Structures are given as structure tokens and as C-alpha cells.
Amino acid sequence: MATRKPTTFLPMLSLLLTYLLILLFVFLLQRKIIYFPETYSRQQLTELASRAALQAWPAVQNYRGLISHNQPTASKGSIVVFHGNAGSAVGRSYYCDALERLGYRVILVEYPGYGSRPGPISETALIDDGIQTAKMVLQDFSGPLFLWGESLGGGVVAGIVASGQVPVAGIVLVTPFDSLANVAQRHYWFFLGKWLVKDKFNNIQYLRNYSGNTAIIIAHQDEVIPNSHSLKLYEALSGRKKLWEFAQSGHNDLPLYPDQAWWQEVMAFIDPQAQ
């Protein structure tokens, strides 16, 4: 009697089904993987902001960001800072320390779903909210408007620029990427990251028609956003642009001390009329 050869069909089918279930799990929970908001109550917001010499703007009840207690009397303009995917605006007071001494007003924007702000977290929600916040800055303060985006915040800045709804005098992008979909594919190719990611933040597409001044800052040893993604974006820019690269830095350890010369160099580039 002939013996039946063992088949590998069932084990392979089981592996395939397991993989598909994992893909479904990742797809449904992907925003938990992308966004890491720090959240707290309004009372905690007030306390944390006060410790950092900051206050809610325009008011605690409906705040959209934080400003310093010690803003320059005569401002060269407003720099609206959009932070990265983790933490919250209150942890970015170093931007105030560095840029206010150069004569600029600084607004540290808080995203919906971060800090004590309610709301959904998504590409569309962050960009739409950023547009409204930028418009409010122009209403409340005089002078030109500059947008500063840190990592994921660079995608928010790019989306605001692409909307055409806000007059922007110049932008600064810190450790930016060409698209979040490409970065996702780089890190999660085994989960088909490029195709499954919902929030694509296609910065090359967003900035394709932008002809203003753009400063890009990258960390040579960036383990989160490899330089190739930042440089691809830089090469695609058609406007006046300049690159700053820190050879000894990773994604989260750029030299952010307020007395570093690069702060003034960057602002002199994107705002040459004020120098």
C-alpha cells in the first residue's frame, strides 16, 4: 500500500492567516504606534506651563498652544512651532529660550489629543487645526509668520503650506522626512508599512509648489528618520533652501542650547530682511 506524503499546506495556511491577522491588528491600531501624546488636566497644564515660564494661549479654557511670560517687546515676527509625535508642547520651552533672544515671538502649538486639548489625532485633524491656529496667530500678533516643524511637525507645517490659506514668510524643518509612508516602509517593511499607513504626510507633494525660504536641519546619526528621507525632501524643494547637518547627533539629541550659533544662522537665512 502506498503511503501518503505529509503535506505542508495546512501549516503554511496557518502561518498566512496569522500574518494577515497581525496586519489587521497593526492597521487598526497604527495611530497608537505613530502618535505618543502626553496628556494632562487643565490644572496640570497651568502648573507645568508655569514651571517652564510659559502660559496658555489664547486662554486656558480653549488654548491652542503656549507662549512665554517674557516675550520680546519689539518682535521681528512670530515663529509657530509644531512639535514631534511624542510628548507635548510644554516640553519644548527650549525654542522660546533660543528664539526669543533673537527677537522673535514664539508660539508652541499643541495638537488635538495632546496636552489637555480634546480631539482626534490624525493627519487631517493636525493639519486642519494647525491652519486655524496659524490664522489666529496672524490675527493676534503683528509681523511676518514663520513655521517651524520638528519631525512629524514638519509634516504638519508642509500641510499648512500646501493649503495656501496662510501667508508664510519662511519655514524651518527639523529632522523631516519625504513621506511618512516611506519611513514606515523603511522600519516596518514586513508589515507592508507603505501601503497600510493611513496618515501618509507626503511632504514632497505638499511642498512641491512652495517657493519660499526653507531651512532643513538633520542629525547625521538619526536612527528614527534616516538621512536619506530628509535629503530626498531637500533635493525636491524648488525654492531657496539651506541644509544644516549635525554629524554627532541622533534624532533626539540635537544641540538645542540657546547659545548655539546655528539658531541665529537659521533665522538669518529664512528671515534675511530682519538681519
What would you note in describing this structure?
This protein is of the alpha/beta class. The chain has one domain (37-274): Rossmann fold (3-Layer(aba) Sandwich). 39% of the residues lie in helices and 16% in strands. It has 10 helices and 10 strands. It has helices at 9-34, 42-51, 94-99, 123-140, 152-163, 180-187, 193-196, 203-206, 227-236, 261-270; strands at 36-37, 54-57, 65-68, 78-82, 86-87, 105-109, 145-150, 170-174, 214-219, 241-246. An 8-stranded mixed sheet has the order 2-3-6-4-7-8-9-10, with helices on both faces. Strands 1-5 form a two-stranded parallel ribbon. The model has no long low-confidence stretch (mean pLDDT 91).
Detail the topology: elements first, then pairings.
Layout lengths: L8 H26 L1 E2 L4 H10 L2 E4 L7 E4 L9 E5 L3 E2 L6 H6 L5 E5 L13 H18 L4 E6 L1 H12 L6 E5 L5 H8 L5 H4 L6 H4 L7 E6 L7 H10 L4 E6 L14 H10 L5
Parallel strand pairs: 1-5, 4-6, 4-7, 7-8, 8-9, 9-10
Antiparallel strand pairs: 2-3, 3-6
Helix pairs in contact: 4-5
Amino- and carboxy-terminal Cα gap: 93 Å
Count of discrete structural domains: 1
CATH architecture: 3-Layer(aba) Sandwich
The fraction of residues in strands falls at 15-25%
In CATH terms, the superfamily is Alpha/Beta hydrolase fold, catalytic domain
Averaged pLDDT: 91
The CATH topology assignment is Rossmann fold
Count of individual beta strands: 10
Overall 3D shape: globular
Helical stretch tally: 10
CATH class: Alpha Beta
The topology string of helices and strands comes to HEHEEEEHEHEHEHHHEHEH
Helix and strand content put the structural class at: alpha/beta
Q: State the assembly state of the protein chains.
A: single chain
Strand order of the largest sheet: 2-3-6-4-7-8-9-10
Report the major sheet.
8 strands, mixed
**Nearest-angstrom radius of gyration?**
21 Å
Low-confidence stretches: none
- Work out the helicity level: 25-40%
